Amino acid sequence: MTTNDSQLQTQAREILDAIAFTPFEQCLTLSREFSKITARPGIYAIRHKTDGLLYIGKTKNLRGRFSGGHKAFLWAWLDKYSDEEVRIAVQPISYWGNPTLLLELEAIILRATEPPYNVKIPSER
């Protein structure tokens, strides 16, 4: 593993720790406007209160990703989760001039976690 690969793995682990282990009560609640979510690029997780990570994704604009709608919420609704049981954890990311950074980080995190809704929802790639 090269130094860059090692740094990428370390960054992915830090992001995963942030989105997976932030206490559920500190994650963002669902709303119509998602005004508490930053408009920066980042990695996010849709989490269930007891079932853990449901979906992990990446985006160039965290707020825009949710205010435009998100398929994982439909799956959560179909699975009969209440809005009190589902929250969002976000981790803003700086690009550092690397447009593939989010894609690479997301791939590492998905391989490590395999959230159930990432299997249900086809990849955008």
Main attributes?
single chain, 125 residues, alpha+beta, GIY-YIG endonuclease, 3 strands, 41% helix, globular
What does this protein structure show overall?
- By secondary structure, the protein is an alpha+beta fold.
- It has a single domain, classed as GIY-YIG endonuclease.
- It has five helices and three strands, in the order αββααβαα.
- A hairpin with a 3-residue loop joins strand 1 (42-48) and strand 2 (52-59).
- Helix 1 (3-21) packs across helix 4 (101-113).
- The protein is globular and about 40 Å long.
- The two termini are 25 Å apart.
- The relative contact order is 0.22.
- The model has no long low-confidence stretch (mean pLDDT 85).
The number of E-state strands comes to 3
Q: Biggest sheet: strands side by side, in what order?
A: 2-1-3
Largest sheet: 3 strands, antiparallel
What is the domain tally?
Answer: 1
Alpha plus pi helix count = 5
Please state the second-level CATH architecture: 3-Layer(aba) Sandwich
Structural class: alpha+beta
CATH superfamily: GIY-YIG endonuclease
- Cα radius of gyration in angstroms: 14 Å
Q: What is CATH's topology name?
A: GIY-YIG endonuclease
What is the topological layout?
Elements: H1 3-21, E1 42-48, E2 52-59, H2 62-67, H3 71-78, E3 86-92, H4 101-113, H5 116-120
Helix pairs in contact: 1-4
Summarize the structure.
This protein is an alpha+beta fold and 125 residues long. It has helices spanning 3-21, 62-67, 71-78, 101-113, 116-120; strands spanning 42-48, 52-59, 86-92.
